[in-house]
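Hello everyone,

My group is preparing for a crystallization screen and wants a predicted model to guide construct design. The compound we'll soak is calcium ion. Before spending weeks at the bench, it would help to have a computed complex in hand. I've included the protein sequence and the ligand's SMILES below. Output in structure-token form would be ideal because that's what our pipeline reads.
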Amino acid sequence: MENKTRLSARFAFVFIFGLAAGCQQTKLEPTENDGVPPGKVVHAEAESLAGAVTITYTPPSDADLLYVKAVYTTKAGITRETKATYYTNRITVTGFADTSVYDVSLYAVDKGENVSEAYVIQVKPEKPPYLIVRDSLKAIADFGGINVSFINELKESIAIITLGKDSLGNFSALNTHYTNVAQGNFSTRGFPPEPTTFGLCVRDRWNNLSDTVYFELTPYFEQRIDKSKIKPVELPNDAPLGYAGTVPDLFDDIFGNDGFYHTSDQARMPQWFTFDMGTQARLSRLVWYMRDDHYFGLHNPRMVEIWGSNNPSPDGSWDNWVLLQTHEQVKPSGLPVGQLSQADIDAARAGETISFPLDVPDVRYIRFKTLRNWSNGTYVNFNEITLFGSPVQTPAN
Ligand SMILES: [Ca+2]
Ligand SMILES: [Ca+2]
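Reply:
Good plan to model first. Here are the tokens for the complex, ready for your pipeline.
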């Protein structure tokens, strides 16, 4: 980082100095361009990296040498050029699509843009990161779709594309997941529980695209948990209610300012409330909706835990509860409280989604525990919860 800053400072200096020279002392130009190309780069050696090579060399000794450039042509016929300033003797050439042998031409260039003869070195890059990621992909069935996991140890910036059949039966992109983390997973939803063919491919920032791997999976059945069957469970240590807020108001399908949950002045963090879904279910996601005139502010929950049980102890103890998920809400813009970007407003209206791991147990009772709200205060106040999952006993229609 420090190096980069120093480099840009140097470039800025050269740029400003160059401008000043250009304006006032154009007569200096002939001495900047001697019309003589530099000598060739010599003694080049390549070290192979993933999708890249680092070439070390001996630059020519010309006093007016400005940079050395490395040039190669991709199999698609695109010419890629990388430059290294005169004060180094190494250059890293990136973006190779495969492990073939490539000719890289090194040229020395002087201040007058006179170009030396080429020194050609043959290089053989190692397997590029986007292909390493492609080989790591694993897909499993998820609620309403699939879950894809990947390993990207080199933390390359890549896009993982999930493909499915469109209405004409052609494969097209359903979802593009951009990442630069070492490993992770993501879901693509919106599918019925039927055998479905999906495709996956990986693209890197040089637009190298892997082949597509196809597979068939049957998404798990997912439905909205019936809110009319959800009932509050009042346990002795649940947070005291106040300001006309109730637990049933979280399940009344009123998302605006009416129909809310609110705790009293006596409530302290952390705090929780408990409800019975009326059926045992494997939950896939919980979506909560903020108080709509205080998005990402005031008493809206920020850091929460969702607990599940099939047999809650009447004394309110946590003995029979299992932690299903921990979640912190992130404000898309990162702006201070009270300032909202359009992305913040869109995210707030869409609701905050907690996805549960696929191996969560089937549960009937839920405890929503708030560890921290958006004002670091002691109240919890928000408007609605919608749950999705697969009920263990599907009610007969
Ligand atoms: Ca020269
Ligand atoms: Ca409500």
